[in-house]
Amino acid sequence: MNPVWIIEKKRDKGHLSQEEIAYFIAGFADETIPDYQMASLAMAIYLNGMTTEETANLTQEMLASGATFKWSGDAKQVDKHSSGGIGDKVSLPLAAMLACCDLQVPMISGRGLGSTGGTLDKLESIGGFRTNLSMDEMRQVVEKVGCVISGATPELVPADRKLYALRDVIGTVPSIPLITGSIMSKKLAEGLDALVLDVKYGSGAFMKSLSQARQLAQSLVDTGKRMGVATTALVTDMNQPLGRMVGNAVEVDESVAALEGEGPSDLMEVTLALGAELLVSTGTARDVTAARKQLQQTIDSGGAREKFAEMVTIQGGDLEAPRVVAPPNDLVGKTAGYVSQINSEQLGQAIISLGGGRKKQGEALDHSTGLEMLVRLGEQVKADQPLVRVFAKGSAVDDVRMAVLDAIEISEEPVKRNPLIVERFE
Ligand code: URA
């Protein structure tokens, strides 16, 4: 086979065979195919797309580039993946809640991407918490506690690590088949029985439009099912932060509150809906109503709070040690009316300016910074009402004051709210 023929075929809108995809991805992973040829194929895929079969083959070959978890025993392995949003902390309470339902959750998570926060960054605001466990350590934590949240190890899907870094610098990140291959190869390496995807759309999401989010949800579900994993997806609204808190330490605090039954209603709604998908997919609950009850019970009994603390302890952290949060500063609006739009991406950028997210790869974070949303979309506000509380050190609040206040639009007329959970894909 010749890499040039494969690039030309995709350039001319042809369908690549399983053998051609396998040859190309294996060659890219072992460096017999250079980055410039992979870059060219990625751009041809970006421009001309892939069929469901090609996307599944791409996912399969990326998965085959590295090690995968194999589990023994009766427990089912499940996970949730979110396409990323502002204030999205669902993974923290949900992993513990699922583990309390006798499911095992080998959750491999990532760091902040663009203006969206990362689960690993949030967890690292817990002093001592390790996110760099080896595959063996992850397996031990799952077998002992029922859930683990850690980063990808070097042996898991190396083709994705290389391809993602390349896509990032050649303008091919927003491609449905390439995103599908990237997300699904990493999730399927966990050796799952069931997976649920939270595909977010809106001002704080990767997918700004509902139609893009729908396409991605369908592609992820089709690929998961073709590869033998019970896969469903919910498309959810990300036109305002999920929950009230945005940042790192403040999001861990809000997650703990959620596990103690004090979570904000939108966070709980999304968490319960995603969890219920997994309980039903695995036959742990007979329907969504029973599943939600079972999940709620893990909170009411205190079991999920205890489970989360157990996971934190075994990963080297201390959940009970207070987390440092920078001093609060309330930002006050000028206009009376209704909150009509929240530019969540701009809020994510404010967190980056405050040091809670990265401007360049590998940068250390200030976990103590954050925002608290004091108003929600649709809410009526008075002039001079505090809209957002900024947790920032010294005078740093002045650097983000304008951007944060600008992110919140007030209209004279009442506004119609979008549903939080828009659509389900199976
Ligand atoms: N997240 C991923 O893991 N991969 C992508 O391509 C996009 C988002």
TrEMBL record:
Residue intervals of the Pyrimidine nucleoside phosphorylase C-terminal domain: 338-411
SMART domains noted in UniProt: PYNP_C
Which chemical reaction does it catalyze? thymidine + phosphate = 2-deoxy-alpha-D-ribose 1-phosphate + thymine
Transmembrane ranges, per UniProt, are none
Q: Name one Pfam family in it.
A: Glycos_trans_3N
InterPro entries for this protein: Glycosyl_Trfase_fam3, Glycosyl_Trfase_fam3_N_dom, Glycosyl_Trfase_fam3_N_dom_sf, Nuc_phospho_transferase, PYNP-like_C_sf, PYNP_C, Pyrmidine_PPas_bac/euk, Pyrmidine_PPase_CS
What is a GO molecular function of this protein? 1,4-alpha-oligoglucan phosphorylase activity
Biological-process GO terms, alphabetical: pyrimidine nucleobase metabolic process; pyrimidine nucleoside metabolic process
Q: What is its EC number?
A: 2.4.2.4
Which PROSITE patterns does the entry link to? THYMID_PHOSPHORYLASE
Q: Name one GO cellular component term.
A: cytosol
Question: Record's superkingdom?
Answer: Bacteria
> What keywords sit in the KW lines?
Glycosyltransferase, Transferase
Please describe the quaternary structure of this protein. Homodimer.
- Family per UniProt? Belongs to the thymidine/pyrimidine-nucleoside phosphorylase family.
Q: What is this protein called?
A: thymidine phosphorylase
Gene name for this UniProt entry: pdp
